[in-house]
Amino acid sequence: MEALLPGLSLLLVLLAVGWGSGAVAAWATPPGSCELVQSTTDCTGRWLSSVPGNLQGDTEELLLDDNTIHVLGNASLLSYHQLRRLSLTKNRLELIEPGAFLRSQGLHMLSLADNLLFTNYSLTAAALSALPALRMLDLSGNRLTEDMVSVLVWNLSSLESLSVARNLIMRLDSSVFMNLTQLLELNLEKNYIFEIDQAFEGLQRLQKLNVAYNYLPCVVEFGLTQLRVLNVSNNVIEWFLALESDDLFELEVLDLSHNRLLFFPVLPRQSKLHSLLLKDNEMSFYQRLPNGTSLADVTVQFLLIDGNSTNVTTVSLWDEICHSNLSSLRLLDMSQNQVWYLPEGFLAQMPSLTHLKLNQNCLETFHLSEGDPLALLTELDLSQNQLAELGAEVGAGDILPNLQLFNLSTNRLRVLPPGVFTYTRKITTVDLSRNRVDLCPQPAAAGEAEGPPCVDIRGIKTLTHLSLAGCGLQGLGGHPFQGTSLMHLDLSDNHQALSRDLGWLQDLALTLQVLSLRNTNLSSVVVDFSAFNSLVRLDLSGNSLTVFPTSLGILKLRSLDLRDNCLPALPPDIPRTPLGRSLREVYLSQNPYNCCTLGWWDSLQQAQGLQVPDGQEVTCSYASRTLSPRALPEPVLRSCRWQTADLALLYLVLALPTCLTLLVAVAIVFLTLKQKLLKMVKSRCGVSSPY
Description:
Blueprint: H1 5-20, E1 35-37, E2 40-42, E3 61-63, E4 71-72, E5 85-87, E6 95-96, E7 109-111, H2 121-128, E8 136-138, H3 146-152, E9 161-163, E10 171-173, E11 185-187, E12 195-197, E13 208-210, E14 218-222, E15 229-231, E16 239-242, E17 248-249, E18 253-255, E19 270-271, E20 275-277, E21 300-306, E22 309-315, H4 317-323, E23 331-333, E24 355-357, E25 365-368, E26 379-381, E27 389-392, E28 405-407, E29 429-431, E30 465-467, E31 488-490, E32 514-516, E33 537-539, E34 559-561, H5 578-582, E35 585-587, E36 593-594, H6 599-606, E37 620-622, E38 625-627, H7 634-643, H8 647-672, H9 674-685
Parallel strand pairs: 2-3, 3-5, 4-6, 5-7, 7-8, 8-9, 9-11, 10-12, 11-13, 13-15, 14-16, 15-18, 17-19, 18-20, 20-23, 23-24, 24-26, 25-27, 26-28, 28-29, 29-30, 30-31, 31-32, 32-33, 33-34, 34-35, 36-37
Antiparallel strand pairs: 1-2, 21-22, 37-38
């Protein structure tokens, strides 16, 4: 795949140049349904069983990926003598005949990944040897062994980049890459390599080496001084020992993550290392043990067996750490290890450090002082440790003056040193979640001069992101955020933090944009969000809301999370409010909605630009049944129409038959007794006399 990138980049550049100059790139569809743009022909995924012979002769790049080509014959490329880049990935290629490239001597990029070249590798090797200008070759995913690879690349002395990833290579020695004197980059990842014996000693120009996802048990006597990037992650390495030498190593990036390292690696004494990745190992420091004993003078012996010779190397790991020059190191990732303390002066060797990751270890204390060499540190991650104390010597000097991100989540902290943020002039993000901390000010109990220990973040003007999730905050009051400009605040999983109203948040009314109040026992009674006009994202999930907070209607949120509450319905006029017009996503599942009051649901479905990501999970209740509002059965709809009909109209309909019956009865009685009634009236009133 890597071999395709330069060609694709060139294609994009050519298109961009054509557009910028006002020219229109003319696409053509030549025979064979291939697409042609300038000097690139794309025949990807055309079900071709052979190379089309009727393409333009001046083609420089030919893409034949994802086809069914079995053989690249001697005559396959005769028409394309200007070919520079050829890609045949994901075919069923078993053979390249020896004369296939005789008319393509200028080919400098060839991708043959994901084929079946193991079947006729010797004949394919003869074809490759006819490419004197080849610089990039991708043989990934061809079921090749180390012997096959050696034969295939034997005569390719011009190669600068080689990928043999995802093959069946198990052991490498000096004969495999012997003639690749110009090689700059080598990719060996995802093989079965368990041993490397001087395989790279002759590669004097090699700068990038990737041996990730193999089975290497150790790296000893590492002496590739010219190498800039080494990736040996995802192996089973327990030791990394650089050669004892005062030579300057060009090494800049070393990735040893996801291995089984027991000790901090023994690095070159002189190097240009700026990124050291040690994540997910089994490292610890053993100079001080938890029982108080010391191993300061204890050495470790390595027995190196090479053929009939045996070499014993004695190493004092602590001295080696001190003697390695780490002055250029900017990134150190030691997360997911077993480190419970750092040796004295360990960080003092790293004055250029900007990112330090020590999360998911066993640290119990961490000390900061004005004299620390970490003046350039911008990110410090101490999360998921066992920190009960964060030590700091706060005086007139700066402590971590350039720190921007400080992650202390999931520890045992109850308080931070007073004034620890006073001199962190650039701090923007602090994560204190999952610690048992309180925010200042805390009211003093009766008889006490001052309140309980608390964390004071007041006046930190640069702070924009703060997480206090799961800190056990209780009944906050006063002005804990006075003087800050927080934009993101996470108060989730604090069950007693909102026992009062939200008055203590008023200092953030103008700046707060993202607020999480998930799982805080929030009820509709105490909620008034009308002052937070800048909010764009609000999480109210996992609470006890029984009524939709009316104060939300005037806000211009873009995201609202109402999951897992007690809401029977939402206001049907939401789409016509400022909230409805600005809202882009709303989460609604896990609420006991009434199936007979879903007018609001229909309104939301018709709102333009509004997404309900969990819409498939939204349900409603009807007569102890749980139904989907998207497809209510017709009997339920009829029943709901009766239940929600206008009562006055219902009463009128019910009374109308009775009234009609009475009227008819009166009419019948009147008509039946009409004569008798007239006689009775005449008899009582008498006969009228004429004038």
